[in-house]
Design the sequence.
């Protein structure tokens, strides 16, 4: 794998990781908004359990999505680390071959 290919792959993986981190941030904001909505519902209509239950379910789904996305981020980070190791190997390999 050549330097240019490694750099291209690194940029693609970094962009993918960045987008996923943004998604997690957006989802965390959603959780806060949903939690605030639940409190508003409790104060305004404490007996309206249907809306509260729906909001809780949605918050639970968003939290599950956050966990899934965080796992994907860790996998992308592992790919980036593997790419860094390949790059180091390539640099070391070329340096050793130039000495011969």
Sequence:
């Amino acid at each position: 794998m050549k330097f240019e290919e490694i750099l291209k792959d690194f940029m693609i993986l970094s962009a993918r990781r960045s987008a996923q981190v943004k998604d997690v941030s957006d989802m965390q904001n959603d959780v806060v908004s949903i939690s605030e909505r639940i409190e508003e519902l409790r104060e305004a209509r404490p007996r309206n359990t249907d809306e509260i239950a729906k909001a809780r379910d949605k918050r639970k789904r968003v939290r599950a999505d956050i966990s899934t996305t965080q796992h994907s981020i860790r996998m992308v980070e592992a790919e980036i680390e593997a790419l860094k190791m390949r790059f180091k190997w390539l640099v070391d390999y070329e340096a050793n071959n130039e000495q011969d």
